[in-house]
């Protein structure tokens, strides 16, 4: 008889767990309390990229004069931008719904709680399982000093239903989400202020890249306050006023709180079912993604680490394969995970940056090239940024890359493949790249690492 699999949560992790389980031949029930697609499709990756595409276009149009194009009267129809975004979200969600139908996944629109060897929903219906995969994701966090119930205070969830472009936006939190929204709204004419408590934006990205990005953000008119907190907030009928800990005063019609996300693991019976949860609420799993209860597995944002949709999906695929094919069980390998930040310009990393490589005991060497030296980047008017490759100085084996610049989120995959295959920097540099392309900057960086780039000293 087919294994009975229950999946809790239908985001990028849960949907993949359910679909892979069905492909393997299990009888699958997927419980989702909101919409299929989870944060990514409905409130994260997809809506943000749909709006970012428009603001990137607006930024390009503002550059038109540089290209010899005279464009006047740029106007924004924000409700139309939002409805275009909604159509894209609906379409992607529809794709997930039909994949579930095709694979005969029983989708139950309800909140599930663990109870013994079943998941139970309101009304008492029980879904017994042989294997359970918990993929409940995260929700935006607030800050104790900020009254999140105020009408002009939102988290990322509030952006998708805004009916107008804010004139002045105060973003508390200069991490990935805060910086993506700064990049989204600045080209739409919003005066954006970002307040970050740490000494750099985009914590986790190497300091040099974070500083270079900050300069570009500031050049686009965004005000940045580092090592700073928003204090003394006053809420008004038309917005908020904040005194910052560095003494500055900011008035804004909208305050966006982007200070991280908390796992949705409370009160769903995890501990009672023998599943261990750490003090921050993340589910503890071993390298096979198995929890302390051998029949319960967990994947995605709720297990902590990098919060990325593709990593969530990869973990879920690994978890369900380990659950249903124990003889072939494999540990989760997170050494090559592209991490893409959809700011303007884009930033993408994979593997280790220099400090991480040194901490891991490597003597490092670099290969670097800037977009400004590439014909295609100049032709497209996108010459900001660079590629930095990191390799082990002794073996020349690639350890990681940071790319900041146009199409960084696409270019990074070439390095990801090279890393997966254990390429040396010399091997990457010896792959012929078409001319003129943005990709040449990756080849040039690899050649530069060997002092073999003909046009770079
Ligand atoms: C603004 C923003 C932009 C982002 N952009 C990107 C990006 O460009 N690229 C990227 O890789 N990542 C991005 N992310 C992160 C990405 O959305 C997450 O990493 C991804 O959604 C995690 O997938 P998940 O399945 O683990 O969790 P989620 O997507 O959060 O899904 C969990 C699901 O479980 C459901 N659920 C929770 N509890 C229960 C329960 N008890 N019963 C039933 N259902 C339950 C929830 O309703 C939810 O649908 C972004 C996030 C945000 C907020």
Write up what this structure looks like:
- The chain contains 13 helices and 23 strands.
- It has helices at residues 12-24, 38-43, 45-62, 78-102, 156-159, 176-185, 207-219, 309-324, 354-359, 375-380, 408-420, 425-429, 440-448, and strands spanning 4-8, 27-31, 106-108, 112-115, 118-121, 126-128, 131-134, 138-140, 153-154, 168-172, 191-195, 223-225, 230-236, 239-244, 249-252, 254-257, 261-263, 296-298, 339-341, 347-351, 364-370, 386-392, 398-404.
- Helix 3 packs antiparallel against helix 4 and helix 3 crosses helix 6 (176-185).
- 45% of the residues are buried.
- The protein has a five-stranded parallel sheet, with helices on one face. Strands 9-16-10-11-12 form a five-stranded parallel sheet. Strands 19-20-23-22-21 form a five-stranded antiparallel sheet.
- 32% of the residues lie in helices and 22% in strands.
- The protein is an alpha/beta fold and 457 residues long.
- The mean pLDDT is 97.
- It has three domains: 4-140 and 262-328, FAD/NAD(P)-binding domain, CATH 3.50.50; 153-259, FAD/NAD(P)-binding domain; 345-448, FAD/NAD-linked reductase, C-terminal dimerisation domain (Enolase-like, domain 1), CATH 3.30.390.30.
- A hairpin with a 5-residue loop joins strand 19 and strand 20 (347-351).
- The N and C termini lie far apart (66 Å).
- The radius of gyration is 23 Å and the shape is globular.
- Flavin-adenine dinucleotide binds next to helix 1, helix 2, helix 3 and helix 8.
